[in-house]
Design brief:
Blueprint: H1 2-26, H2 36-50, H3 56-63, E1 64-70, H4 79-92, E2 97-107, E3 110-119, E4 127-136, E5 139-149
Parallel strand pairs: 1-5
Antiparallel strand pairs: 2-3, 3-4, 4-5
Helix pairs in contact: 2-3, 3-4
Length: about 160
Amino acid sequence: MYSIFKLVKQLPILIIGFTLSFQSLSEPLITSEISQAEKAVTEFYSKVFVQQGGDIRKLSEQYLHKDYIQHNPYVATGREGFIKAISGWFKKRPVSVKTVIKRVITSGDYVVLHVHSYDTAKKDQGSAGVDTFRVVDGKIIEHWDVWQKIPENMPHDNGMI
């Protein structure tokens, strides 16, 4: 009987401890601090795609890890693959194309950008994209992306961006 009494006496402490742990897991950590990973990704993306240019090789050496892994099916892995693909893309890309970072989501070493790219010389809505980066030692080591053209007509008024 003593052991049951002892357990019942400790039960509220166990329940409170569990509840506090559960609540701390269910509430997102919101912070205004910009992580090293987020800073590296947003600086790189802004300099290369938003500001459209600069020295791609120099920016790649500054921001991309020497063992950079690329998951885009049209770009070779490695810094050289990125440099070759982006340099070629910029030669074909009209200067009227604008890229805007709409959202930045960071979780540890991962940074996700929700992006809108559009051509100011065209009447279409452009494309919505999600670029996901993994950062190690302050440099981008891995990249994934998905892009979708924004349709003229949608069954809702919510937009994609």
